[in-house]
Amino acid sequence: MQPFIAISQRLAPAAHNEVRECLASEWGSFFARNLASYLPLPLAYHIPFSQYAPFVQGVILSGGNDLALFCDDYLSRTRDSYERDLLEHCVKKRIPVLGICRGAQMIAQYFSCEIAPLQGHIGSHKLHAQGQEFRVNSFHNYGVMSVSSELESIALASDGSIEGFRHERLPIFGVMWHIERSGGMEYQGLWQRFLQALKERE
Fold first, then answer.
1. Per annotation, catalytic residue among 83, 140, 167, 180
2. Residue 36 and residue 136: Cα distance in Å, rounded?
3. Which residues fall within 8 angstroms of residue 112, CB to CB, at 6 or more apart?
4. 25, 109, 121, 179: which is deepest, by most CB within 10 A?
5. Whole-angstrom distance, CA of residue 143 vs CA of residue 75
């Protein structure tokens, strides 16, 4: 049986006062291309992550929604609370985590980093990592401006905001662009580190 990678979902309002958990369709093709030995396990927010944890090799915190820090509504608060508990569990059990866009912001907030509004991050833009320049997609209005001593900055945008980081001791990584979308895999340094962390848990 293939192991699972748990992945958090966007919360979206729907008709008839419903709230829906949903995942961008690009993630299916992304798993088929880049994570063929794993199956995605979308997380339901009413099931504690501790019940999923024994069955997963790692976790992806997907994009969508804003942090409650910037949009204090029910959807954002629900995701914040769930993902904070998830991170607490993953830190204790050393489960690999990769945060994408909002997911990276959630990790940064968990580790007491500075996050602030910014401009010019909708559309393709350049970043600098490992002495090289890369072009990535971009769909966020808030960014990580500085990291705490527990995290290491890996990739920077031209405005100095932090586009990619990793934890100094734990298998926890964050990128501000969308790896599942077109133009998301030009820089793969942190992605490769996440894959290596998954293999080390097997």
1. 180
2. 23
3. 148
4. 179
5. 20
Task: Say which residue the tokens 């008709």 belong to.
Answer: 15
Catalytic residue list contains 125: no
**Which CATH number characterizes residue 139's domain?**
3.40.50.880
How many distinct structural domains can be found in the chain?
1
What residues make up the domain containing 189?
4-201
- Tens-digit pLDDT profile for the chain (202 aa)? 789 999 999 999 998 889 999 999 999 999 999 999 999 999 999 999 999 999 999 999 999 999 999 999 999 999 999 999 999 999 999 999 999 999 999 999 999 999 999 998 999 999 999 999 999 999 999 999 999 999 999 999 999 999 999 999 999 999 999 999 999 999 999 999 999 999 999 8
For the chain, what's the residue count? 202
From 187, 81, 94, select the one nearest 133 (Cα to Cα): 187
Closest CA to 194 of 38, 89, 32, 81: 38
Q: Which of 101, 121, 140, 167 is catalytic?
A: 101
CB atoms within 10 A of CB 126: 13
Q: Which two tokens stand for residue 20?
A: 């829906």
| Alpha carbon distance 77, 177 (integer Å) | 22
Choosing from 121, 140, 167, 178, which is the catalytic residue?
Answer: 178
Q: Rounded CA gap, 44 and 152, in Å?
A: 31
178 is catalytic: yes
